[in-house]
Amino acid sequence: MPLVIPVQPVIPWGVSLSLGHVIAFSSTVYRISYRYRIKRLWWDDYFATVAQLFALPYAMILWPRLKLNNSKRTQIMFYFMASVCYFSILWCARISMALSIARIFPPGEIRRYTIAMAIGFGTIGLGLVLQLSIVCGTDTSWHQTPGTHCHGTQWVSSFAGDMTGDLLLIFTPLVLVWRIRLAQNARRLILGIFGASVLTVIASVFLHVLILDPTRFGPGAGLLVYLLANVETCVCLFVCNLLVSASVLYRLIRRRKARTTEDHGNSSSRTADATTLTDVVDGTGNQRTETYALDLTDISDAMPSELYTSHHWDPEYTQRSKSQHHTDDNLTSTADSQPHSDEGSARNDEASGSQESSRT
């Protein structure tokens, strides 16, 4: 027996989604203002801004579209407007998240991969908008369907694209972040932030199940499709901005802990969250650890050109530095052993001289 969805209450849904749009908008405004204030705006921030610009008209038509007595012409106009904004919000936000990953890594293979992933997201988004325009623009039979929804092939493509994009955003950081030696709590926070894309996956699954066969689920399915689309866009925008917001909160918590530790006279924990980059053993056998204070806030806020001015992030440099340390140690040991050899030779000469004098 198929699940029958009743007609949805408009006011509770409208209030909840309006609050969700306000939260998403606030997170974007905070992100852009914070990055602008510290002069760290980059391409991931620009695409987050573009996503928010599409979210504004999407939120503005929420209440007018929830009116059940709109004319057919108005419903068709709202549908096209909402669909274009929906695809633009999702894929601009995903581009921003992909570029946020690219921001973590220096120029190289990993960064090229993440930038190519962002370009792929943009291509998918443009393709979906184009497919929507062609399919729903040429076939007008959907104008008479309940809820005025165009259930064309673009939604099959949309579901495939959503699953691909979100899974890439979940598993790519999981693989790549392990290449950076972060403190355990910072690593968990980064993975948790990108893992929040699971929420977008859940909303996308429910949305596309309903949208591909809305008549099967009763009279409330048509409106619920639009409501779930709003949920997905709000979640995606919030997750897109979560890295910046969480990193600032993380820094504030660290500062508070540092003050507390300093008050108790234990200043050694100030560098507990620093990133250890190279561990070198010197010639005396004592382990010497080189530490570079790169925390979560530095990663999320630094410009790529500034984050990697230090050669510590270059694996080849690290290998060369290790080889140089070993070379220096060998030279030091050789230099240290030379005086002992000279001293031994002098002692042998003195012993030979004494023997000759005694013989005489």
UniProtKB/TrEMBL annotation:
TM helices/strands, residue ranges: 12-34, 46-64, 76-101, 113-135, 155-177, 189-211, 223-250
Report the main location listed first in the record.
Answer: membrane
> From start to end residue, where is composition biased (Basic and acidic residues)?
316-329, 339-350
The answer to whether keyword Nucleus applies is: no
- InterPro entries linked: Rhodopsin_dom_fungi, SAT4-like
Q: Which UniProt keywords apply?
A: Membrane, Transmembrane, Transmembrane helix
Q: Where in the cell is it found?
A: Membrane
Q: Where is the composition biased (Low complexity)?
A: 271-282
- Residues annotated as coiled-coil are none
Domain Rhodopsin span(s) in chain numbering: 31-206
Q: Name one GO cellular component term.
A: membrane
Q: Where is the composition biased (Polar residues)?
A: 351-360
Pfam families tied to this protein: Fung_rhodopsin
Keyword RNA-binding listed? The answer is no
Give the membrane topology, semicolon-separated if more than one: Multi-pass membrane protein
Question: Which segments carry the region annotation Disordered?
Answer: 260-282, 316-360
Q: Which family does it belong to?
A: Belongs to the SAT4 family.
Name the record gives this protein: Rhodopsin domain-containing protein
Q: Which organism is it from?
A: Dendrothele bispora (strain CBS 962.96)
Classification of source organism: Eukaryota, Fungi, Dikarya, Basidiomycota, Agaricomycotina
